[in-house]
Amino acid sequence: MxxxxxxxxxRRRAMAKPRPVVISGPSGAGKSTLLKLxxxxxxxxxxxxxxxxxxxxxxxxxxxxxxxxxxxxxxLRGIEAGEFxxxxxxxxxxxxxxxxxxxxxxxxxQICILDIDMQGVRNIKKTDLCxxxxxxxxxxxxILEQRLRQRKTETEESLQKRLTAAKSDMEFSKEPGMFDExxxxxxxxxxxxxxxxxxxEEIQKVKALQN
Length: 211
Ligand code: ADP
Ligand code: 5GP
Hints:
Elements: H1 2-14, E1 21-24, H2 31-41, E2 46-48, E3 52-53, E4 68-69, H3 72-80, E5 84-90, E6 93-98, H4 99-106, E7 111-115, H5 118-124, E8 132-137, H6 141-151, H7 156-172, E9 181-184, H8 188-210
Bound molecules: adenosine-5'-diphosphate and guanosine-5'-monophosphate.
Adenosine-5'-diphosphate binds next to α2, α6 and α8.
């Protein structure tokens, strides 16, 4: 009787909801590129927490998929109404994770991925979300600048703001205990394989839940 009770308890623990994953790191480090690969290979396992932002959509970005593109007034109203887990100002625009964005993914028993900046990381640490914290870093500052320029999504002004923020972010990633893993995105395939190996335990948890 007791043995059955204990084994049921262990099974329930093993089948507990998967932990969310926070992916942070400087703009241009390759977070979106890595996440696109992950979400394509494991489309039933991971779900993206669609943030709100006041910045303009880039070519190819879809409202409701990449971001919820909103006005500053709309965003401030949502924050005031307590709809956000965290929010931050980055490079002259507002960004934020709504409670609904995370709940939508978790309701499907999927691993919720949050792509957020370092202010977001600090704020999420104050919540009970309990995610795995990953930082994606470029091999060097020079390569980061090259990648941002080659992406051709920023004005010179926005690029400079992002590069300034990147310096702090690269330092932030070295703070002891801040991240569970710092991934250097040099050769894309290697970084992607490393990302998968860091997440394999959570991936297996979700697969067990879904079977
Ligand atoms: P982030 O989402 O972190 O801002 P992106 O995923 O948009 O960064 O990547 C920035 C640019 O660098 C994109 O143009 C992308 O194609 C390119 N990129 C990403 N990873 C690599 C890599 N390992 N090697 C070379 N270019 C890369
Ligand atoms: P981008 O404009 O390049 O899509 O994103 C700029 C920065 O904002 C990135 O560092 C990205 O991680 C961050 N970001 C995106 N969504 C959120 C969010 O909801 N909250 C926070 N704090 N940062 C976000």
